[in-house]
Amino acid sequence: MSETDNHLTTSQINDLAQHLESAELNGVDVHKITDDYPDMTWKDAYDIQWAIRARKVAAGHQMVGLKMGLTSWAKMKQMGVDTPCYGFLADYFAVPDGGEIHMDELTHPKIEAEIAFVTNSILRGPDVDIDVVLGATDYVLPAMEVIDSRYRDFKFDLKSVVADNTSAARFVTGQNTAKIRDLDLETLSVELEINGEVVESGTGAAILGHPAKAIAMLANMLAERGKVIPAGTFVMCGAMTAAVTVNKGDHVRARYEGLGHVDVHCV
Ligand code: OOG
Ligand code: MG
């Protein structure tokens, strides 16, 4: 994924950003954009995502973090793709622990258990590795992400999902935090429960061998656009489990060994 050129024009990029953002805001699904633009490049896909982000900022939203996606084999296999990708988190995506996901605002939401990092110094690619990330980590915390692809039947290819802000929709963070030295991030395990029944489980090692690898990859991908991960950034590493469809009335809990649990209700 090293294309650095555009196939699309600036006005096509802006139109596609508007198209995908209105699908999100109106809860209407659309067909994947590569059907119409099969020659679009990686640069086009990320440019569309960055244009959506700019629209949110222009509309008065704050950016509250970043996410990596498709960083575990469970997710890559589930979605039939093999390359991790990143997206942004806007303020209104955040749901408090124990809070509510309003299903009417979403199209076909799925939930997944994640681990998140908060940095305390800048991460500047292209040569960031796990040790650099660990040295720049303030603390880690448990999180769940609600993904809601804007594409019909949740079917997409990688360029389409990158343009669609990697299906980002809502996220919930737990109230327990931990310092890196107090945890083994590779063996850290999670169980995802729906209405008290365990439906998925995973460990930190499921994320590219080590969750910090996802943060390193993010810093290195951002460097391709001359961007950094600033100090104090909240970053989700990508799901440790496959994503699970949720329905109105579901109570979802992700239970982490040594990090408590995160809860959300689908209403
Ligand atoms: C893309 C987003 C993947 C993750 O944690 O792997 C993602 C998708 O599966 O719709 O957020
Ligand atoms: Mg995710």
Secondary structure elements and pairings:
Layout: H1 10-26, H2 42-58, E1 63-69, H3 73-79, E2 85-90, E3 94-95, E4 99-101, E5 110-119, H4 130-135, E6 137-147, H5 158-163, E7 168-173, E8 189-194, E9 197-203, H6 211-223, E10 234-236, E11 244-245, E12 251-256, E13 260-266
Helix pairs in contact: 1-2
The chain binds 2-oxoadipic acid and magnesium ion.
Magnesium ion binds at residues 67, 69, 112, 114, 145, 147, 238-239.
What does this structure look like?
The strands form 2 sheets. Strands 1, 2, 3, 5, 6, 7, 10 and 11 form an 8-stranded mixed beta sheet that branches. Strands 4-13-12-8-9 form a 5-stranded mixed beta sheet, with no helix packed on it. It is of the alpha+beta class and 267 residues long. The longest helix has 17 residues, at 10-26. Helix 1 crosses helix 2 (42-58). The chain has helices at 10-26, 42-58, 73-79, 130-135, 158-163, 211-223, and strands spanning 63-69, 85-90, 94-95, 99-101, 110-119, 137-147, 168-173, 189-194, 197-203, 234-236, 244-245, 251-256, 260-266. It has a single domain, classed as Alpha-Beta Complex (Fumarylacetoacetate hydrolase, domain 2), CATH 3.90.850.10. The termini are far apart. The structure holds 2-oxoadipic acid and magnesium ion (MG). Magnesium ion binds next to strand 1, strand 5 and strand 6. Magnesium ion is lined by residues 67, 69, 112, 114, 145, 147, 238-239.
N/C terminus separation:
39 Å
Shape: globular
- By DSSP (H or I, 4+ residues per run), the number of helices equals 6
Cα-atom radius of gyration:
17 Å
Largest sheet: 8 strands, mixed
The helix fraction, in percent, is 10-25%
Weakly predicted, low-confidence segments: none
| Second rung of CATH, namely the architecture | Alpha-Beta Complex
Number of domains: 1
Assign the structural class, choosing from mainly alpha, mainly beta, alpha/beta, alpha+beta, or little secondary structure. Answer: alpha+beta
* CATH topology (level 3) name: Fumarylacetoacetate hydrolase, domain 2
Roughly what fraction of the amino acids lie in strands? 25-35%
Would you state the CATH class? Alpha Beta
Q: Which hetero ligands occur in this complex?
A: 2-oxoadipic acid, magnesium ion
Helix and strand pattern: HHEHEEEEHEHEEEHEEEE
CATH-level-4 superfamily name:
Fumarylacetoacetase-like, C-terminal domain
Overall number of strands: 13
Overall pLDDT: 96
